[in-house]
Amino acid sequence: MLIKCKKQRKNIIVLAFVSILLILLSYSIFNIVLWVSDGDRTNKQISNIAEIINKSGVDFDKLKNINADTKGWLKVHGTNIDYPFLQANDNNFYLTHSFDKSVNQAGWLFLDYRNDIDNLDKNTIIYAHARIDGTMFGSMKNVLGQDWYSNKDNHIIKIYSEKQETKWGVFSVYRIKTTDDYIQTSFNSTDDFKSFLGLISNRSIHNFNNPTGNNDKILTLSTCYNDTEKIVLHAKLISIK
User: Fold this and answer.
1) Positions of the chain with pLDDT lower than 50, given as ranges
2) Which tens digits make up the pLDDT trace of 38-70?
3) pLDDT score of 46
4) Number of other residues whose CB lies within 10 A of the CB of residue 184
C-alpha cells in the first residue's frame, strides 16, 4: 500500500510538471505568433505610408488623416529609421499602439509628451522599440558601430514637421544601463544644462568632435538594447528652415 501511494504521488508530480511545461510552451508559442502578427501589421503600415510619401513627399494632411497625433518625420542616415512620429498625452500609449492607433506590441515612434516639435525645448526626445526585424528603432544599434561612425554623412539627422525642417549634428552615442538621467527636457539654470551636456557627452563611445554649449538645443533618440540597457543618441540643432 505504501509503495502504491508513493507511485501515485510520483505520477501526480510528473503530471504537474508536464502540465507546467505545456502551459509555458503554449505561452511561448502565443507570444511568437503575436510578435510575428504585430510585425506583419507594422510592415504593412510602413508600406502604406511609404506609398503616400513616394507620391507626394511628406504630406502631413494625409498622415494626419490616418492619425491626428502625427507630429513630424524623422530620418537617421545609416539606419532604417525613416518614419513619421507621433505624440500622445503620455509616454506609454505608443509603446503598445501602432501608427493607426491599433493595439500592437511593436508600437511606433513617439515624441515625449512634454515636448513641442515646433517650439523646441532644450532637450527634445523621441522613443521607439528596437524591433528584431530592424523596424522602428531596431536599426539604431548601427550607430554603435565603426562603419556607421566612419561615414560623416550619417552624423546629420533630419526632422520635418508641418512648420519647419530641422537638421541636427550628432555629438554622442552610447549604450547604458537603464536610467532616466538623459530624458530631462528643461533645466532650472544654465549650470544645470551645462552639467547635463557634460554628462551625456562624456558617455559617447565615438569622438564626433562636435562640442556643445549652453545655447544649444539637443535631440535625444532612445531605445532598448536589451532588457537592462538602452541605446541613446544625442544631436545638437544645426539649422531650422
Assistant:
1) 26-37
2) 556 667 777 677 666 655 578 899 999 999 999
3) 74
4) 17
pLDDT digits (tens, 9 = 90+) for 94-115: 999 999 999 999 999 999 999 9
CA 207, CA 196: separation in Å to the nearest integer? 18
Give the predicted TM-score (pTM) of the model.
0.82
Q: What Å distances lie between residue 80 and 123, 154, 234, CA to CA?
A: 23, 12, 18
Q: Which domains does the chain have, with CATH numbers?
A: 57-240 (2.40.260.10)
What single-letter amino acid sits at 23? I
Amino acid identity at 161 = S
DSSP string, 125-159: EEE--B-TTSTBTTTGGGGGSHHHHH-GGGGEEEE
**Which sequence positions are flagged as catalytic?**
224
